[in-house]
Design brief:
It contains no helices and two strands. With about 400 residues, it is mostly loops. It starts with a strand and ends in a 373-residue tail after the last strand.
């Protein structure tokens, strides 16, 4: 016998629970024409523990007042509950919800592109939450996150893409008191927040358990100030790929000088596309000795002319140097690299491609390239190169 019986109207749904159930997973998922859920107001949800995807993809749903008195106190999984509800602009109806048993909040409001604020979540108790991945990802109109300032995220481990693609977000100071000390995954957390010019509020974050910082601030194209990161302990981090990729206004990285990246093995594209970066002062004391991939680390840094900060880098474990300095069109002097030990490198494809001011590569004459198997386009487009003496 069916657990519940559905009666479909043109734009509304009436539901009658026939048996005790604990799972409403994907119940109305992708009901793209659903606008009216008034008939759910008195739905007995006290035993429900899984709300995953319940209204996901209901792109015409704009009014959720019917849910304001729901008892969700046994809910553990809220993954994608309202994801891609692109017409939803007001979630104040959720202000009395008791989500204290919630563990998974992944993608709960993902793609709610009409949300400008998240008022209604101020008093949510998320203290048991572990997974906050993409919770507000692609909320492209969201500009106000003050409602989150008192959240207890101490148990949170996964913050992957939590605010990724929040194109209207200007200020994250509301997060200043967050205790993220159990956080492991910060992958793309603020990626694509293109109006974010400062990251004030993150100064006192304890990210010492963080392992994955991949793309954490990638495509933050207005970001120019990294002071908030100067005291960060990233000593457990192993993945820094794309961390500041396409931060096109970033011109000063001195504040990163004390970062301990000694466990890092992946630096792919870390500063790729940082087109305002002219020098690498701040990286001179970095220990990158465990680094294996440096692919495109500084690719597309079109203003970069001074790489002296790299002269003492130990890249002896490096395997992939593909496009590391590709499209660095202002780079004319690579003397800093003359003593690099690249003996384990096998991929040098496009390492200096389109470095149009590079005229002399003699400084590379002592490089041991015996293990190299891919040199495709290594100096492609180096239009100022006078000879191949190296």
């Amino acid at each position: 016998m069916s657990k519940y019986k559905l009666k479909k109207g043109e734009n509304n749904i009436k539901i009658k629970i026939k048996n005790k159930i604990t799972n409403l997973e994907y119940m109305f998922y992708n009901c793209k024409s659903l606008k009216n859920i008034e008939e759910l107001e008195f739905l007995d949800t006290k035993d429900i523990n899984n709300f995953e995807g319940m209204f996901g993809g209901c792109s015409f749903l704009s009014d959720i007042k019917a849910l304001q008195n729901w008892n969700v106190s046994n809910g553990k999984n809220f993954r994608c509950m309202f994801c891609e509800c692109s017409s939803l602009s007001d979630i104040k109806a959720l202000q009395k919800w008791n989500v204290s048993n919630g563990i998974i909040f992944e993608g709960m409001f993902y793609g709610c592109s009409s949300l400008k604020d998240i008022n209604g979540l101020e008093n949510w108790n998320v203290s048991n939450g572990i997974n906050f991945q993409a919770m507000l990802c692609k909320c492209s109109s969201l500009s106000d996150i003050e409602a989150l300032q008192k959240w207890n995220v101490l148990k949170g481990e996964n913050f992957n893409g939590m605010f990724n693609g929040c194109l209207s977000l200007l200020d994250i100071n509301a997060l200043k008191n967050w205790n993220v000390s159990n956080g492991i995954n910060f992958n793309g957390m603020f990626g694509g927040c293109s109006l974010l010019s400062k990251i004030k509020g993150l100064e006192n974050w304890n990210v010492s358990n963080g392992i994955n910082f991949n793309g954490m601030f990638c495509e933050c194209s207005s970001l120019s100030d990294l002071k908030a990161l100067k005291n960060w302990n990233v000593s457990n981090g192993n993945n820094f790929s794309g961390m500041f990729s396409k931060c096109s206004l970033l011109s000063d990285i001195k504040e990163l000088q004390n970062l301990n990246v000694s466990n890092g093995n992946n630096f792919e594209g870390m500063f790729n596309g940082c087109s305002s970066l002219s020098n690498l002062e701040g990286l001179q004391n970095w220990n990158v000795s465990n680094g294996k991939s440096f692919q495109c680390m500084f690719g597309g840094c079109s203003s970069l002319s001074d790489i002296k900060a790299l002269q003492n880098w130990n890249v002896s474990n490096g395997i992939n140097f593909q496009c590391m300095f590709g499209r660095c069109s202002s780079l004319s002097d690579i003397k800093a690299l003359q003593n690099w030990n690249v003996s384990n490198g096998n991929n040098f494809q496009g390492m200096f491609e389109e470095c149009s001011l590079l005229s002399n590569i003699k400084v590379l004459e002592n490089w041991n390239l015996a293990k190299g198997n891919n040199f495709e386009g290594m100096f492609n487009g180096c239009s100022s190169l006078l000879n191949l003496e190296a």
